[in-house]
Amino acid sequence: MNGDGHSSTSRVSAIAGDEPQNALTSASQARHAPQVAHFLRRYAIFLVLAGLVLFFQSREPAFLRTNNLLSVLQSVAVVALLGLPPIFKTCAKKEVRGLQLRLPIPP
To answer: What is the pLDDT of residues 70-100, one digit of tens each?
Structure first.
């Protein structure tokens, strides 16, 4: 027995008893890590966009008002229209890096 009334062997067994739980926890974390990484790769841009919207809304209360959103859409419309021809040209090709982009047209 040591000074606190417990034997040192009970402490060792208590610590040894925790090892399977720690092993299960680390195995569970290792199994979920690829899923978390896949989720972040897939949705990171949307999470960043949501974070930016929340940040700007907290800084400027008029950020999500209708007039501001229409102004942003009007500003982006020109760039979107200029981006359409390259999209159509890419889709007109039969393949882009092995990816079929054309819709099948019946004869």
So the answer is: 998 999 999 999 888 877 777 776 666 666 6
- ∠84-85-86 over CA atoms, to 5°? 95
C-alpha to C-alpha distance for 105 and 95, rounded to whole angstroms: 15
Q: Tens digit of pLDDT for each residue in 35-53?
A: 888 888 899 999 999 999 9
pTM attached to this predicted model: 0.46
Q: Which residues contact 65 (CB under 8 A, 6 or more apart)?
A: none
Retrieve residue 61's tokens.
């209360």
- End-to-end, the C-alpha distance of the chain in Å comes to 92
Residue 36 to residue 60: CA distance in whole angstroms: 33
Contact indicator for 11, 1 with CB cutoff of 8 Å:
no
| Separation of alpha carbons 55 and 63, rounded Å | 10
Give the SS3 label for residue 58.
helix
State the sign of the Cα–Cα–Cα–Cα dihedral 87, 93, 99, 100.
positive
